[in-house]
From TrEMBL:
GO terms for cellular component: chromatin; nucleus. This is Histone chaperone asf1b. Residues 111-155 are annotated as: Disordered. One of its GO terms (biological process) is DNA replication-dependent chromatin assembly. It comes from Quercus suber. InterPro entries: ASF1-like, ASF1-like_sf. Belongs to the ASF1 family. Pfam families: ASF1_hist_chap (PF04729). Keywords: Chaperone, Nucleus, Transcription, Transcription regulation. The keyword Nucleus applies. It is found in: Nucleus.
Amino acid sequence: LEWKLIYVGSAEDETYDQLLESVLVGPVNIGNYRFVLQADPPDPSKIRDEDIIGVTVLLLTCSFLGQEFIRVGYYVNNDYDDEQLREEPPPKVSVDRVQRNILADKPRVTKFPINFHPENNEHGEEPPPLAENAIETNANGEEPLPSPEGPAIEH
């Protein structure tokens, strides 16, 4: 399994995304597992000034043999740590005064159907359905209502 932690630097342009961590885990048997994934924060010099303040997304993805099967998205709000700076932002972003608030209790989970048994393809079985059949759920396994603000997580 390959786990990736990605910071979305711009909702409009994937070239500003930053891979914060990539870890290979396995082999693993079927079951439930817990692990801690630690990563350095995103490099603000690789984010456009207009995208540093505001809402973005942190993505945790997992792939099996190159096939992404789950994506967990967390909304992230970046704002100044001082009320006066929030009300009257400086012309140039003061990165050292920006704080990040990750909405960790409200993840958006998208599951993609994949082929977990690629050896079966040698026997003429059909490949898995495409990503347009992905199912998005919230932390309770329910399909969430669309978010009224912030970028989409289908990055």
